[in-house]
Design a protein that fits this description.
Elements (H helix, E strand, L loop, with lengths): L13 H15 L15 E9 L11 E2 L2 E11 L7 E7 L2 E6 L3 E6 L5 E9 L15 E7 L2 E6 L4 E6 L5 E5 L13 E6 L5 E5 L8 E7 L10 E7 L5 E7 L5 E9 L3 E9 L9 E2 L2 E6 L8 E9 L2 E8 L9 E8 L2
Parallel strand pairs: 15-19
Antiparallel strand pairs: 1-3, 1-7, 2-3, 3-23, 4-5, 5-6, 6-7, 8-9, 9-10, 10-11, 12-13, 13-14, 14-15, 16-17, 17-18, 18-20, 21-22, 22-23
Length: 337
């Protein structure tokens, strides 16, 4: 989510963007209370539809953007109103696990083209506060390893660890160094390093500060006894971190997102070395790709990396904020440095 009077909005085509602006200004001119949030629903299975998308509709043959080679992409829709808001992504053995910013886990098979597949929908029952309030299940970062799932909660600035099999909570912590993070700019990205340490990235504020916070944990961030150090990430000017993951060679791949009313969404993908353990260390980066209109882009909030035939594959997913004017996109690229 992006702080402000409205939820995050994707880059729209001109007609759709005009329609959105009309609706936005109409909302500003009225004083209609938002409907109450629906009660939590239990596990279920729904249908998920995959529609292929081009990287650039104005140049259908385009495949390259910076160091990313486009391999394919899909717009995802479902017959369940609960599908959407995808903020985190994990892909393993041909299966997608995505966590929404309303604390709901979606599991489905990777698409091979257009079609229809089942999606399993499981809410996180355990978490900070009652599950019927979305602000108590605002999960913006995730790590999956073996039988465990770690989730970072905005608003509460907490990290919880769950058993992946049944989503039962095993432990939780409210790290001291995260307590002062603003409600809607907290734990936006989380990475487990090869040596068992974790990095948790703060999204940061919409301002011109050159650095944003990163917490380095010497172990499980959901363990209150893990030691933590405050580091910093050198921000891409005008952008904020929306997720991060680890590359096969151990480097960090980081998503940096921006929304502007006249431009819509844009995304800068950076690569950085893993920082040292000393407090105050700054994570420097280099830009490898910039996605902006007219490229197919939305509110890109999740990233994961896999390996296919020796190639590093970068997957991106977008958060549609449950808006009919936005899309859930799953995009696939090869990293070609």
């Amino acid at each position: 989510m992006i702080p402000g009077g409205f939820p995050e909005q994707l880059w729209l085509s001109r007609p759709r963007r005009a329609a959105f602006l009309i609706l936005a200004f109409a909302a500003l001119a009225t004083n209609i209370a938002a409907p109450p949030e629906p009660p939590l629903s239990g596990p279920t299975v729904a249908a998920l539809m995959f529609d292929p998308v081009l990287l650039d509709e104005s140049v259908p043959a385009r495949r390259q953007v910076g160091s990313l080679q486009y391999l394919g992409g899909w717009a995802l829709t479902s017959d369940s109103a609960r599908f959407g808001g995808l903020s985190n992504l994990h892909i393993e053995s041909g299966q997608v696990t995505a966590l929404s910013d309303s604390g709901t886990l979606f599991r489905f098979a990777l698409p091979a083209g257009s079609g229809r597949e089942p999606v399993r929908i499981d809410p996180l029952g355990d978490g900070p506060g009652p599950a019927t309030r979305k602000s108590n299940r605002d999960t913006e970062s995730m790590v999956i390893l073996g039988p465990w799932l770690w989730a970072g909660f905005e608003n509460h600035n907490m990290v919880w660890r769950y058993r992946l099999a049944d989503l039962r909570a095993a432990s939780s912590a409210e790290p001291r160094l995260m307590r002062d993070w603003r409600g809607n700019s907290g734990a936006e990205g989380m990475v487990r390093l090869a040596d068992g340490r974790f990095l948790v990235f703060c999204e940061g504020l919409s301002d011109n500060r050159p650095l944003s916070d990163v917490i380095l944990f010497d172990g499980d961030p959901a363990d209150p006894h893990s030691r933590a150090s405050l580091l910093h990430y050198r921000r891409v000017p005008g952008y904020r971190v929306s997720d991060a993951t680890i590359l096969p060679d151990g480097r960090l791949l980081i998503l940096n997102r921006r929304f502007q009313w006249l431009e819509g969404f844009s995304l800068v993908v950076t690569i950085a070395e893993v920082p040292g353990a000393e407090a105050g260390a700054i994570i420097e980066h280099r830009e490898i790709a910039r996605l902006q209109p007219p490229l197919t882009i939305d509110n890109m909030e999740g990233v994961n990396v896999t390996v296919e035939n020796g190639r590093t594959i970068v997957w991106l997913v977008s958060d549609d904020n449950f808006s009919p004017l936005q899309r859930t996109l799953l995009l696939k690229f090869a990293l070609v440095e």
